[in-house]
Design goal:
This protein has 140 residues and is α+β, with helices and mostly antiparallel strands. It has helices at residues 2-29, 41-47, 50-53, 88-96, and strands at 33-36, 62-69, 74-82, 100-101, 110-113, 119-126, 131-139. It has two domains: 1-30; 32-139, no CATH class. 34% of the residues lie in helices and 31% in strands. Strand 5 (110-113) and strand 6 (119-126) form a beta hairpin.
Amino acid sequence: MCKSVKVLSGIIIVVAAALACTWPYIKMEFAGSAHYTEQDKREYQFYTPDILKKIPHISSQYDFDFANITGPASHVYAIRFYDTNDASRVDAYLNSMGYKKQEACHIEAACWSSNDPQELITVSTLENPEEILVSVIYTF
């Protein structure tokens, strides 16, 4: 009986440790939204798509957002640059990455598309306060 208690205790400890290590990722996987900075390493690595990780930082103050939208299902990843209204470096970056600027957009922004029909990038210039919002939208 003593041996079976030790084995059961060992199994419980291993399962508890595994759950403790993976719990933050489980929470992020099922999150409806998130607001984070680049210093929030776990969230930054988990949520931020490569296109936003490599985007030119056009302002020293910026942060990130994630939203899981249902009906129609989509994930929206965004970076917001504060105290700027010049998106020319972002536009040049998207152009260099092979994105094409669309003539029309479903919102008041510039829409960019790639060969992936499920991906759309919007670049919005906000006036008050001055901000540039770059959103990557994946529909599925």
